[in-house]
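[09:14] KT: can someone run the structure on this one? pasting the chain below
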Amino acid sequence: MDFSKLNLDENQVLARKIVLEAINKNVRNRNEFQKFRNKIVKESKGSIFHNLYFIKAYNDLIDEGKIIENPEFLSLIQKRSIRTMSGVAPVTVLTKAYPCPGRCIYCPTDVRMPKSYLPSQPAAQRGFRQRFNPYTQVFVRLKAMRLTGHEISKVELRVIGGTFSSYPKRYQKWFIKRCIQAMNEFSQAITSKIRTSKIKSIYGIDTVNTLIINSNEKKSKRFEDVIKENEKSKVKCIGINIETRPDYIDKNEIKRLRSLGVTKVEMGVQTVYPEVQAFTRRGHTTEQVMLATKLLKDSGFKIGYHMMPNLPGSTPELDKEMMRVIFKDENYCPDYLKIYPCVVLPKTVLSQMFKKNEYKSYSDEILQDILLDNLKIIPEYCRVDRVARDLPSDEIESGFKASNMRQILEKKLFDLGTPPRDIRSREIKDQIFDIKDLKLIKREYSSNKGREFFISFEDSKKDKLIALLRLRFPANTFIKELKNAALIREVHVYGKQIAVGKSGKDKKQHVGWGTKLMKEAEKIAKKEGFKKIAVIAGIGTREWYRKLGYRLEGTYMVRYL
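[09:31] RB: done, structure tokens below
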């Protein structure tokens, strides 16, 4: 449905009446709400309208102080909130078009877009429509998520585009600052009639006119002040992800990324075979991948790899073995994974090769066999964020075109009796669990010359993940705040997101699982002789860590044991 066609200012008198009465009468489930709604609409001689009208009425009533937040009621009027089921509200922003240092033969080049992105891709399309302005990209996305009933108090900022580290440093700092500033000012902007009168079309989600809010542009704030403000903002940035190349990662770059608040780095690894890298003109070595991974982990970052089966020069056998290599070889072991099978796109060297019969894509059957094998061996400590890029099928000249590849593969794995074990496949999401079935599980493995502990609370009956923590004992560190410290690289509680400071009867967040995991990590670190523990805390999580006895040292939250 095109939400931009809805005028949500209509039907508000009736929508507000229904919301108020439903809350007062403690309506508890969707069927009950629908019957209640239909009854009042009939009595008022009105007509049934979309739930977005109710969500707007609900949000407005909260803003006006006439009701308090009621997550249980909100769940009755919103769609199933897949976007926030993993515990955070993901907001993806796109950097501007800029020359890429890579010369990969499979990457499309569109002068309007960052390298490897097409204007027809959904996430990239939103950035393109906003002319890559970071403030309006974040503001529009937050508005859209709030409009559809998603909780937005904890935002994971995902910066996509070209190689982030290759952009001018001044641009990088400005881009991040404007994203965080949009979060800080969102609550104020959403209730200000003066501002919202200028951006009414934001209610149309991704069809808004590009608009830089002049009053914000004139207020030039220091980067440090914007960051400090976000620590107590209603919309907190709990993590920043960027994409870069392994050959751009060194000690100085890592320190600079931390100064920007970055907590997760995704690297385009693509393959572990030097001959395939050379053939595809990737431009970096496997040794650079290993070094970058070690430096980042020893600095507390979460690491994501992008891997590409079906590259020119590879084979099905090599692509199956590749996944075994990255999890058996201690020099790799990523925390996150995106598997992007190579496809032929226009305006690429690979397209020319394909037209000359110098490259042939795998059949769908062969590719599925490879991916099934890949998914079977991914360990419990890794999360597969995506299987296949979100590309319009009409842009693909050769290669698989199924947009639901992951669902196809997971169904086959369940049918075979070997369900995937990665984090995303086992997240609790909106399922109810019995606390008696919870177990504290510790998995230890060696990685990049250090020791890793993947500590989790899991539902033993349902085989579902409730919460996790990544603890690392580094071999050595080069950041002074981390000297002689054990590192906490991630704390994450899964389930439908609850606003920071709120509680929910059947929800999984904010009921102490994160605190319990922190205590366990501290106990393990102390037993191993560490006198200090440091967390690569997202900007908006610092207050939570302060309550646990941590203090800010440099860009890390630190506690002495």
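[09:33] KT: thanks! The longest strand covers residues 438-447.
[09:34] RB: yep, looked fine to me
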